[in-house]
Every structure is written in C-alpha cells, then in structure tokens.
C-alpha cells in the first residue's frame, strides 16, 4: 500500500512512521511529505531511504492513504485535494473534527461508523482519545450523565519548541519560548486559545469531541486542561456521574475487558498509572478506581496515555488498519 505521511518531519509525523513500522502496516511505498523548506530531505523507513516531497507532488504519486499531522491550515488546504484525487485522508489536526460531514474516530469506541464514503477522517484530540476509550465500556454499562475532567498535559502536545523550553529551563540555558511563562517547576492552566466563555479551545475540544465520538449529546462534559513539565504523556483526573448504580468490581472488570485499556490499580503496592510508564506505549492506562463518596452513582478515575502514540499517531494508524480490514482502502 502506498502511504503518504504529511508532516513527516514533525513530532507526531515521525511517531506515525515509527508506529507504521512497529505495527507492520503493509507499506509498499512511503511518501514522506513536508513543506517546501524540507523538500528533498531524506527519511529512513524500514531500512529504506525516501526523499521528502511537497503535498502537491504527493498527490501526483497517488498514495492509497495519507496520514496528516501538519497543522490545521495544511489540512484545510490539502485534505480536500487528496480526497478529490481518491486518496483517503486521516487527519490529526482539528480542521475537520467538528465538521458534521466528517467522521471523528477512535477505533475502539466508534470504528463502526466508517464507510466507503469517508475520504477525510478526523483523528480526535489526544486528551479526548484517551478519555473516551475509558468512558466507552462504562457508558454502555451504566449510562454516563456527567463527566468532570482535569488534565495534566505533556509539553510534547505543544511540539519540539516546548520540549526544548522545558529542557533549557531545567539546565538553566536561555532559549526560544513556546509558552508565555516558565514551564519547569510550574504548571500553566492554559492550552490553546481562550474562548468567549472563559474556556480554552483545548477544553472545548474535550467537551464537543466527546459527545461526537460517543454519539450521545446527553453526556454533560466540563474540562480544565493544564500544561505540566512532563514529556511521557497526558494524565487525566476523571469524575463520572452515571444514571445507574455500579459495583466497583464490575467497573474494574469492564475496564480490564476494554480493548486498548490496561488497568494499573493497586495502591497498596504503590501501583498506579504514570506518564513515565506510559511513554512509548499504545495503551490507555487507568487506575485510582474509587467511588466519589460525596454523591451516589459517581466514580473517580486516573487515566494516562502517551499523547504522541494513542493520543495521535497510533490512533491514526489504527484507523488506517480498520479501513484496510474493511477493504475501504
Ligand atoms: C496539546 N492536545 O496537548 C493538544 C494538541 N496536541 O497541546
């Protein structure tokens, strides 16, 4: 299969290459795509060297599928051109996520929505992906009424410049700033731009995308998203109120049975999910499973995942795997 990776030189794009190789996706030819500036650069993939081309050149090479992670403006401009040429696009930017004509897919949650008509498929926001994988089995069993989520997000969600800022600050070195404030030894309660209602775009993504992916607008979601000086992955404190009563042992069993979830929950042995353990992995790790004792039918969870993997690259590759399994690419 001819596979294009648009944004191949970025953090998520290079993670896509890693995941494609690790999961042995049947790539007969790789087409790495980046801006004019990177054109001609060599990318190594599974022992072979490929030259970076522009998006326009990639269309002419007629890939079967194109994984995009090159920002919203590139997706807005080029995803329709790829789709017009009969190339299926899986886009990691936010450009198409809330477009009513486009599917927003986490394979373990709503993979069944994909059809042959879907030529531009949106990959959800990283902090949304890891949460809905956990919500899915619980919604099916107990019907979710309300979710209150607070996130603790890795600087890798911002990109290389943010990782460099953290490392420079840690080493007392001056350098470019990705954030308006120091990030080392600090937390910044601000991810993406503030909206009229006082929420940030990141918080609104978690709210709106969750309803679309779960296919249920009755689920009330509120979010506070925070940047922290970590690189291994995003962590989330999730409080879930259900319509129906639950038994903690059944909750644990449902989570353990959920595809893509690993339960790490043994406080007596100090076992709980942490970004340093999730780093480089594809699963969503859940622990600190306990009742909210302030009100009935309410649960507290702690959810951790590598935001570059399941939160972006791996989910996109899993969508491609699902399309292939359904003979849609
Ligand atoms: C972040 N979820 O963490 C956003 C985009 N990757 O910055």
UniProtKB/TrEMBL annotation:
Binding-site residues for substrate, renumbered to this chain: 153, 227
Description of how the protein assembles with itself and partners: Homodimer.
EC number(s) on file: 1.2.1.11
Catalysed reactions, as listed in the record: L-aspartate 4-semialdehyde + phosphate + NADP(+) = 4-phospho-L-aspartate + NADPH + H(+)
Residues at which phosphate binds: 97
Residues of the Semialdehyde dehydrogenase NAD-binding domain: 2-117
Domain of life: Bacteria
The keyword Ligase belongs to this UniProt entry's keyword annotation: no
UniProt name for this protein: Aspartate-semialdehyde dehydrogenase
Entries under SUPFAM superfamilies matching the protein: Glyceraldehyde-3-phosphate dehydrogenase-like, C-terminal domain, NAD(P)-binding Rossmann-fold domains
Species whose genome carries this gene: Sphingobacterium lactis
Function: Catalyzes the NADPH-dependent formation of L-aspartate-semialdehyde (L-ASA) by the reductive dephosphorylation of L-aspartyl-4-phosphate.
Enzyme class: oxidoreductase
Family to which the UniProt record says this protein belongs: Belongs to the aspartate-semialdehyde dehydrogenase family.
Catalytic site positions: 126, 234
A GO molecular-function descriptor: NADP binding
Keywords: Amino-acid biosynthesis, Diaminopimelate biosynthesis, Lysine biosynthesis, Methionine biosynthesis, NADP, Oxidoreductase, Threonine biosynthesis
InterPro entries named among the record's database cross-references: Asp_semialdehyde_DH, Asp_semialdehyde_DH_beta, NAD(P)-bd_dom_sf, Semialdehyde_DH_NAD-bd, Semialdhyde_DH_dimer_dom
